[in-house]
């Protein structure tokens, strides 16, 4: 079963076509990376999948139901989305922010019950922010903040996570930490994730599946091994790259 | 561009010619050079009235267009202009103050006074804007706040001096009537100065359009260029204010039209905006002349330009580019947060009750202060209690509305005043005063509420658009306010006792409150508070932005609609009592947040209590400051609130 299935998806704004007749399937239960050069449409695609923007034409099916036929809260119970620049969450504690992840389950007026409390505690433990529970989010470091937002998504108990460049503002140690966390969350509980990434090496190391876009069209879809070869990389980025064998069996691409 | 402007220029010219020929057939026009000695009265009216008026319209339009273009370029803000930045209102206030307090100052001419006021207002707005990276929406909101405060003070002065009312109102409306050619000479000199300054500044401004970091990287003295450019724009706007009064929105319209007609470069914008400004103002003045001829009613031209400005702002909204760095429109920086807010809330509530009792008990008597004994307490209670309850409830309702709006838009400057509801309510009130033969209290209340509701509908129409960022709602509200105030000044310019009644209401009063009315208002405030508490989860999620809120399955459109409606009702109800301007809706949520009330429920409750307290104090002050006369309540509140708020916003971030 595929998580998302796209048929002739087109997104256009006046004067420009951001996504062009895109047809592809995203696998369930895997970590998928969306890569491509700046302006390739990868963020646009993610925003369509998260229902943040409307496609101009074409069909998108999420878990065998048309994407826009889902009710807002039902959809949020199945899919959690993190925008590229999460806001500062001024004046909110970590626990409160994570608890917002329960909104799809209890709504505006429903009771915040024992199951909700348990889900919040579990999510904080899973993402390693239990010790920070009473800290204010706007006093956290970048990595801690990103883990808090991840905990909010985990508390949502959704089967799919959509992340828009979750590591773009982090140093390399925190990049590895956050992506490792996403991978662990997904593989331990059978969740799916779709992540927009800039760095091919991070995509190859942490993701099971790669979708590459160029100028709004699909260039490549496959595993990390299919990606980490000179000719696909040149097709995606228009740049010659060398592939090195890392000591741990990881493939690493560097520009010529 | 020339070809597309031509029809409008021709139309403006023929409108002027129409009224000129209506005054005097072409054959009898006086010959150049003009010499009043050999003319009859119609020839003098033409040569020293209508002719300079036509030229003044062209010159003032050009000056305002240039001023707006410079401001928009230097602040990189497509909705900046002398009106939206409070510059014109500052000049107006200075002139009103000088007229009443020190007429001697005006002997030297009106210019120095107007320039001082305009410069002061511009300085304040820029100081507020600078702390927020000149984020367009925030800068304009600051400008509107400064402008509204200045207008409030000017209104207070006008009210205090009824005999000047008519001339001041007409001047406020911006009249182009001329008696000789001196205005033409003065404005021509200013336009020449502006043109030279703009030519000199064109290149530095082009570098500055890269943004402050990029520009200083290229060796530009950013602060100096900004100061010079804003200074020139302020001088231009103040000159028109001094000469003609408040002519709104030409400075906004001209560059906007220039841009949409294809002027992309900064030089093109600076060159075409004056031309377009001249055409627009001439066209407006031509229409005013036409109306004057047909109906015999002479409206100030500035009121008409305001009518154009509101819709124009609305049209511009969706076209505003997101040129702002993310995050600059919001946030005051980290504010402390109280671990256990309950004791504070209890103290606030207790304080409110004690204040109410004390305020009933004490009061001024001729020759001093008095504390009531038990007997007179019983006698005064039915008189003082309703107005205290009503004032507190109105304060609470406004504070709740403000807290909701600040959370909804994630903008700490959002407030009921800038939502446009107040402006709409004022329109409703004025409409009833003018069109009902004998307006009853119920009719006035109904008119006020429905005016507010109408404005709310307009604003809500924006919110329902999917891609409309919440902060743009504030601009829509400002547009509605501008429209309302333009209509209002057009109505008032007719000038009779009814204007005075409207002016009185605009500044708000609680003296005529009955017990029933007070309890109705209190009930409404309590209901609003409970609904807001019930929706506190929305109020927690919404400040995180549309992306997060949508991702959590929040029904964004409905939530915005419901919350806007709630805020609008609260504002409408309070406006009936305190008038359209008080700043309580802006201040109270701010204070609550500064006191460490961060969670939505605590924030709303705290804001409501503080708002009620503020309004009680304002009511007390309004009764006592001018004893035995009573000052208007809303006016008093904004006289305290406005300056305090501006001080708060110019303070360095912690």
TrEMBL record, chain A:
Superkingdom assignment: Bacteria
Keyword terms: ATP-binding, Cell membrane, Ion transport, Iron, Iron transport, Membrane, Nucleotide-binding, Transport
Pfam family, one: ABC_tran
Topology term for the membrane: Peripheral membrane protein
CDD domains: ABC_Iron-Siderophores_B12_Hemin (cd03214)
Cellular compartments annotated: Cell membrane
Predominant localisation class: membrane
Magnesium is among the record's keywords: no
Annotated ABC transporter domain residues: 4-240
InterPro entries, per the entry: AAA+_ATPase, ABC_transporter-like_ATP-bd, P-loop_NTPase, Siderophore_ABC-ATPase
Gene Ontology molecular functions: ATP binding
Protein name per UniProt: ATP-binding cassette domain-containing protein
Source organism of this protein record: Paracoccus aerius
